[in-house]
Every structure is written in C-alpha cells, then in structure tokens.
UniProtKB/TrEMBL annotation:
Residue span(s) of domain Phosphoenolpyruvate carboxykinase GTP-utilising N-terminal: 32-259
SUPFAM superfamilies with a match to the protein in the record: PEP carboxykinase N-terminal domain (SSF68923), PEP carboxykinase-like (SSF53795)
Reactions accelerated catalytically: oxaloacetate + GTP = phosphoenolpyruvate + GDP + CO2
Keywords: Decarboxylase, GTP-binding, Lyase, Manganese, Metal-binding, Nucleotide-binding
Described purpose of this protein according to its UniProt entry: Catalyzes the conversion of oxaloacetate (OAA) to phosphoenolpyruvate (PEP), the rate-limiting step in the metabolic pathway that produces glucose from lactate and other precursors derived from the citric acid cycle.
EC number, as in UniProt: 4.1.1.32
Family recorded in the similarity comment: Belongs to the phosphoenolpyruvate carboxykinase [GTP] family.
Name of this chain's protein: Phosphoenolpyruvate carboxykinase [GTP]
Keyword flag GTP-binding: yes
Residue ranges annotated for the Phosphoenolpyruvate carboxykinase C-terminal P-loop domain, each copy included: 263-623
Keyword Metal-binding among UniProt keywords: yes
Length: 627
C-alpha cells in the first residue's frame, strides 16, 4: 500500500478509477499513469490484474458490442474483424527516436535512405505526439496492463506497463505476455518499459467506425525512445503496432538494453530437437515475418525416432551463462501466428494449440462456427457449409479474392501447445548450440549450408534476404534485404549491432555454429519447389546436428559455406529430389549477388561496418569470383 502524492492526485483530477486500487501501484507507476491520464483524458481508469475473471468480463463486453464473436465450434475461441485499413504493421510510420541520428541509423551516402532503422529527432517526435495524444482517449477507458516479458522475476526477464484504450489489446496482451499484478510486487528498484497506446479516436467520433474497430489509419504513428525505455503508439489496433510487448519492446527496445547489458534480443524461434538416441539439442532460428518460424518451431519429424519440442516461435532473448554457453528464453507467453497456410498437414501442433482460448483476427468463418482460411480447403467436411470472408461477405470456394486476409492471425496461449517444451518457462533459458538464418529465396541459394565461423555467420546473417510477405505494407514478391530478419525491428545502428554480435566472441565462450537454410528454392525449369519442407525439414536439422557432432565427411566447401556432400542427407521415404539443383551454388547467380550485396552493404552500412565483417565480405567475394 503506497501513499499517493499530491501531484499525482492533482494530475488524476476527477478521472475515476473503475477497477483496481491505485494505492497498490508502485509510486513510479502511479506517476506514469497519472501523467498520461492527464494528457490523454480518458473517462476512467481500469487497472488490470490479468485474472481469468477479468478476461471473461472484458470478452463478454466485446461480444455484446459486436467487436468479437464466438466461434461456436470451439471452447472460448473468438473471431474479430478489423477495419480493413488496419491489417498489418506499418513500417513507414514506425520510428526510433534518439538525439544522435547515428545512434539509430548508419552513415549512408547522400540521397540513400537507410532501410534499417527509421530515425526521428526528439523535437519532431514531440510535435507528432502533441498533435495526436492530448485528449485522445476522451470518452474511452484507459486500461493499465502490467506485464512481464519472460518468466516472472527471472534473471533474463523484463517488466513493462502498457496503457491502452483498446480492450482487444488488453485481451490479446493477456495471451501474448504474462499479465499480472504480481509485476507490481516484484518491480522493486527495477525500471519498467513505458508503453502508451491509443486507437486514436476520441469520442464523440466524427468518422464512421468500421467493424466496431476504432482506429485512425491516416494518423498512425509509432515511436520508440530507447534511452527512456518508452513506446508511443497511435492510430492502429493491429498486432505489431499495438501489442507493444512484442516487436516494440521485446525487439526494438530490448535490443538496446541487450547492447548495454551484453546480451541479444533477436527475431528467432527456439526449438528443442531430440534424436533417436535421446540426446537433445537446442536451436534458434531467424526468418523474416511470415516465413515459417512457427512451422519450424513445432515441426513434426518425418524421420522415425526424432522429437521436436517448442520453446518459442518468434523472439529469443539470449545471454551467455557462467559455463560459457548461450542461454535463450522466449520472452512471450503466446503465439501470434499467420493463419493462412496453417493446417493439420502443415502444422498440426499449432492447430491443436488454438482449439480453445484463442483469438482469430481477419480470418473467415463457416456457418457451423469454425474458422476458415486458405489452406483449409481439404479440411472442410461439409462441402455445403457457407463461408463468410474476413470482410464479412459471403464467399465460395473458387472465388478470386481470398477468404482470409493473407496476414490474418491466431493468438493462442503457448502452454496449450501439445509439444511445448517442459523447460519453456525456465527462467535461465535453454542452451543454444546452433543458430539458423533463412528466408524465401526462389533462386540460387542451396537448401542448407554451414558458415565458416562466428564472423562469417554474422556476415551471412547481415546478407539475409527474403521475398516480401503480407506481414507489413509491401506489395508483390520482390526479394528484399532483411538483415538478421531484423530489418523492421532494428533498435539501433546496424553497424554497432554487428559489432555487438562480434564482441560476444570471447575465448571462454562456446559459440553456437551458424547455418543458413532455404526451404523455398524453385526449379529453374519447372518453377516448382525443389524441397517438400515442413516435417521433412528434420532431415536438414539432422544434418546440422551431425555437423555439430563433428562429422566433417558430410560437408563440402563452396564459396558461401559448407553444403552437404551428395547423399549425406537422410532422404529415406521421400519422393524424388533433384539433389544437384537443390544444393547447387550457381556461379552466375552468386557473382551477380556479390555485386548487389556489396552495393547494399556499402550504401546501407558504409563506414559503420566493422572491419572484420568487411573482411568476410571481401573474402567471400574473392571466393565467388574464383568460381
Ligand atoms: O504484426 S507482428 O509484428 O506482431 C507479426 C510479425 O510481423 O512478425
Ligand atoms: Mn515475427
């Protein structure tokens, strides 16, 4: 029980506390809440405790208002349609705010816009905030959401408090993070990340609210202040724009904390893989959004005797332990996965996870109360069932437009995953032996290769590219650079980020080996995928683990890394595979790529590129040119 000081009382003015006890908030949280309430002027304050009772109450209210509707075929599953203008992250309106521009972006030549990090000055940010936040919660409730990223009180965990006027955000945060008032008890002297979110539509509302989804797409603005550990988000209720614990905190802010404290915050899944002999290995893997991290994290092996268990599917916080090994935790508490393409064939464990207590956003719905999306065509039992698409219109198989939005999502509690790892909430984390980078590369890039060492691995990660997906506002399928799968989530100068990675390499540490995979290569003749993917990816993991064991005979050197020697992958039970094309490192492709990559690195990282990483580039280019 804390005394509330006079200034705080004055700032709160006459705003009533609808739920919770203000006196139980630590003084620094009281000040934060009062200051922001004074600014945004909600009609009431609701302090969340994270209990089931509270969630039920909010969900009932949302169902009554029509923002959520139950999917009757399941227990506690709900569907939500957003305003069709608010469906993905908005990278062009997402900013990092630092006094020195070059704390955020690299020194790019005149006329070249940095693609990693999106910088705004504190003065410009103030103007942007001033034109949006004063009074922005008028007529709405301000929820105070206390949450922990990572197991409560764990040595790698961090605390945040999100203020929001979206109850959809409240119930989604409850799935995706650990929301509990215990956060206030353990906070002590610890700092917390201040997350301020508003849908940006004060009452009375002038424009029409579509689908009971208030938002303000023309005025979207998302700003991060790393030194202050503060996030401001306005105008969007969607995923990465509004669930501030996820990309904003756990990647953009946390990567800054990690740099200061000597650890890593990365866009990576974490999986435990057990071999037939019973030995288990932990692997982290970075792929851009919507490239199959969730599928790999929950892989169902097609090789007998193998077992995969999921620790996390999107974000890894990793720190070297006293024993010199790299330990990873999943800071999240749920999965926010891409729905289309998820089925019993592609990811049965994800399907099992979201059979109850889950929220589906922008998917389609059947008249018998099931969710529906592209990829479930064969799983509809009653072919006469009626489908309502994500826009609320009747939809039939064969219609040109998709039934579900390509970036439609499920939010499901991680603990419901049948193969969640027993140690997934271990506060110390799990020891990582291999790091994998990958993306959607239709041409030129072999199924798998091992890099030549830590710095070459970092260089390979820095060169990561992938076809654009629906997870952000890009159109079409061009292959884009996405260094370390972090391009949209970079929290600071990418050159310094590479330097930070490099400096983790000290003599007493056992560094993970770094690999690159590409499940998405297509035949130059037929245009068809060369590799079946999904459960058969265990065959690649098996090769990686045998390499970790020191099996040198199964690899052969190429200019870009070590690829499997012919026949060294277990292909038992697979149909025909065009090994030569799948594993080839074509000289024409890589010579062109080397030119393009150098141009990219020179223009985007330039003088910020650490010399040892430049040497990796030079050496690799020389190897390629000798092909
Ligand atoms: O919208 S999110 O950023 O949460 C998902 C993603 O793009 O990875
Ligand atoms: Mn992601």
């Amino acid at each position: 029980f804390y005394v509330v000081n006079e200034v705080v009382i004055k700032r709160l003015g006459h705003i009533p506390i609808h739920k919770g006890d203000f006196h139980l908030l630590p003084p620094k949280v009281q000040r934060f809440v009062a200051e922001k309430a004074e600014l945004m002027r909600p009609r009431g304050i609701y302090i969340c405790d994270g209990t089931q009772h509270e969630a039920d109450e909010i969900i009932d209210k949302l169902v009554e208002r029509g923002m959520l509707s139950p999917l009757k075929a399941y227990e506690n599953n709900y569907i939500c349609r957003t305003d069709p203008k608010d469906v993905a992250r908005v990278e062009s309106k997402t900013w990092m705010v630092t006094r020195d521009k070059y704390d955020t972006v690299c020194h790019t030549p005149d006329g070249v816009d940095p693609i990693m990090g999106h910088w705004m000055s504190p003065e410009d940010m103030s103007d942007e905030l001033d034109s949006r936040f004063p009074g922005c919660m008028a007529g709405r409730i301000m929820y105070v959401v206390p949450f922990s990223m990572g197991p409560l009180g764990g040595p790698l965990s961090k605390i945040g408090v999100q203020l929001t006027d979206s109850n959809y955000v409240v119930i989604s945060m409850r799935i995706m993070t650990r929301v509990t008032s215990e956060v206030f008890d353990i906070m002590g002297d610890q700092d917390f990340t201040r997350c301020i979110h508003s849908v940006g539509l004060p009452r009375p509302v002038k424009q029409k609210v579509i689908n009971h989804w208030p938002c303000n797409p023309d005025r979207v603005f998302i700003a991060h202040r790393p030194p202050e550990r503060e996030i401001w988000s306005f105008g969007s209720g969607y995923g990465g724009n509004s669930l501030l614990g996820k990309k904003c905190f756990a990647l953009r802010i946390a990567s800054n904390i990690a740099k200061d404290e000597g650890w890593l915050a990365e866009h990576m899944l974490i999986m435990g893989v057990s071999r037939p002999c019973g030995r288990e290995h932990f692997i982290a893997a970075a792929f851009p959004s919507a490239c199959g991290k969730t599928n790999l994290a929950m892989l169902q092996p097609t090789l007998p005797g193998w077992k995969v268990r999921c620790v996390g599917d999107d974000i890894a916080w990793m720190k070297f332990g006293a024993d010199g090994r790299l330990y990873a935790i999943n800071p999240e508490h749920g999965f926010f996965g891409v729905a289309p393409g998820t089925s019993d064939r592609t990811n049965p464990m994800a399907v099992a996870t979201f059979q109850k207590d889950s929220i589906f956003t922008n998917v389609a719905e059947t008249s018998d109360g099931h969710y529906y999306w592209e990829g479930l065509e064969d799983e509809i039992k009653d072919k006469n069932v009626e489908v309502t698409d994500w826009l609320g219109n009747p939809w039939k198989l064969g219609d040109a437009a998709p039934a579900a939005h390509p970036n439609s999502r499920f939010a499901a509690p991680a603990r419901q995953c049948p193969i969640i790892h027993p140690d997934w909430e271990s506060p110390q984390g799990v020891p990582i032996e291999a790091i994998i980078f990958g993306g959607r590369r239709p041409d030129g890039v072999p199924l798998v290769f091992e890099t030549y060492g830590w710095n070459h691995g970092i260089y390979t990660g820095a060169c990561l590219k992938s076809e654009a997906t629906a997870a952000a506002e890009y159109k079409g399928k061009t292959v884009m650079h996405d260094p370390m799968a972090m391009r949209p989530f970079m929290g600071y100068n990418f050159g310094k980020y590479l330097d930070h990675w490099m400096k983790l390499n000290t003599a007493e540490r056992k560094l993970p080996r770094i690999y690159h995979v590409n499940w998405f290569r297509k035949s130059r003749d037929t245009g068809k995928f060369l590799w079946p993917g999904f459960g058969d990816n265990i065959r690649v993991i098996d090769w990686i683990i045998r390499r970790l064991d020191g099996d040198v005979g199964i690899g052969q050197e190429t200019p870009v890394g070590i690829v499997p020697t012919k026949g060294s992958l277990d292909l038992e039970g697979l149909g025909p595979v065009d090994w030569d094309e799948l594993m080839s490192v074509p000289a024409d492709y890589w010579k062109e790529d080397a030119v393009e990559v150098r141009k990219f690195i020179e223009s985007q990282v330039g003088p910020d590129l650490p010399a040892p990483i430049r040497k990796e580039m030079d050496d690799q280019e020389a190897r390629i040119n000798a092909m």
